[in-house]
Amino acid sequence: MTPAPHRSHTDDLLSFIAASPSPYHVVASAAQRLEKAGFRELRGTDDWTGATGGLFVSRAGALIAWYVPEDAPAHTPFRIVGTHTDSPNLRIKPAPDTGTSGWRQIGVEIYGGVPLNTWLDRDLGISGRLALRGPDGVPRNRLVQIDEPLLRVPQLAIHLDRSVNEGVALDRQRHIAPIWALGDPQEGELLRWVAAAAGEDPADVLGWDLMLHDIQPPGYLGVDREFVVASRLDNQVSVHAGVTALVDAATGATQPGFIPVLAAFDHEEVGSGSETGAQSPLLERILSRSVSARGGSDEDWSRALAGAFCVSADMAHAVHPNYSERHDPDHRPLPNGGPTVKVNVNQRYATDSTGIAMFTAAAERTGAPWQPFVSNNAMPCGTSIGPLTAARLGVTTVDVGVPGLSMHSARELCGVRDPGYLAAILRTIMVGD
């Protein structure tokens, strides 16, 4: 693949990330692209009988999308790309208005594994969704994205804490509340401000899922602009690659020989244990229903799973130049060397030799490089949705990911070529060519 397609892919990735500061925005951005490609949304209360072509179901911060070629038998195997929409961040508490010493502040809760120092002294906006009173008594949701320098978590000046560079831990309970104004805290002030910014009456707000995001836009870094730098690369790189691959599979000249599926779950960063997480029956129920809707039997469902294959795509660790001893000495992925295939014999990743063979064969057909990854034995290994999906559906699964630095930071880094490599490999797997 030449440099130009990679740059085109990452330009589009940066636009996707900028429009998607929360899991709910990720789903909206993905749905918009799918609809533009001819996919249509199905709701749980709809009749799915005979539904073919591009289809998707969205639920809060999760999205399941699939493409059914015309005349595909009900037992046609699935080719699943599993990703997640959430990223570690700071989430606004139910009673957010607080403050001290003449400052108005916002109470936040830490979501996922946040390196807190990366969120200090950064200009922060607010995003998420409001649950509003509906005309028929059923709440309606409204997305919120305030890309303004509204809040900030200020560091203590080094003059007042000479030990700050000695690795002193931040007090998670007291020192994380961002400032946003002077004066005494006023109950309901933040909600009134956010509702007004969204053009809604604060009296109609019944609930909310709001969070903070760094408003610095994504971009490129390096002498040759060979790196992508952005918030939420983990895991919007994979969501964007999955959407791109699914659209290409559905609209290409060659019809897929499988049912290509994108499963974008929420709450991976906190264990996936929710109605929209990978531990839920969401994917299983949707795929099973899609088989039944095409006249399939239990036997067809079992056959579709028996021939299925899943790629769990999440960010991976590139070797860190300043901490290379933290990495396995023989497995040191670098940016722009291709996606990594992640292996852990203790099943923190679901990869086995069959999964490796299927992924690397697709990489060969695509002409894309790839790299092996395994954690240092002296370090705990992270995990992703791969083992959960493999255990829930009983399908062959491989864990892969684009290698990057500063994982879970407010601003992460990866190579400019790797997201395009990943999308191309996923498309090859989905189509089966």
Keywords:
433 residues, alpha/beta, Aminopeptidase, Aminopeptidase i, Domain 2, 2 domains, nine-stranded mixed β-sheet, five-stranded mixed β-sheet, 27% helix
CATH class of the largest domain: Alpha Beta
Question: How many domains make up the coordinates?
Answer: 2
- The number of strands is 20
CATH superfamily of the largest domain: Zn peptidases
Quaternary structure: single chain
Residues in helices, as a percent range: 25-40%
Question: Number of helical runs?
Answer: 9
Beta-strand portion reads: 25-35%
Protein architecture, described:
With 433 residues, the chain is α/β, with parallel strands linked by helices. The chain has 2 domains: 286 residues, Zn peptidases (Aminopeptidase, 3-Layer(aba) Sandwich); 126 residues, Aminopeptidase i, Domain 2, CATH 2.30.250. Helices cover 27% and strands 27% of the residues. It contains 9 helices and 20 strands. A 9-stranded mixed β-sheet has the order 1-2-3-13-4-14-18-16-17, sandwiched between helices. The protein has a 5-stranded mixed β-sheet with strand order 11-12-20-19-15. A hairpin with a 2-residue loop joins β5 and β6. α2 runs parallel beside α4, α4 crosses α9 and α7 crosses α9. It starts with a helix and ends with a helix. The relative contact order is 0.19.
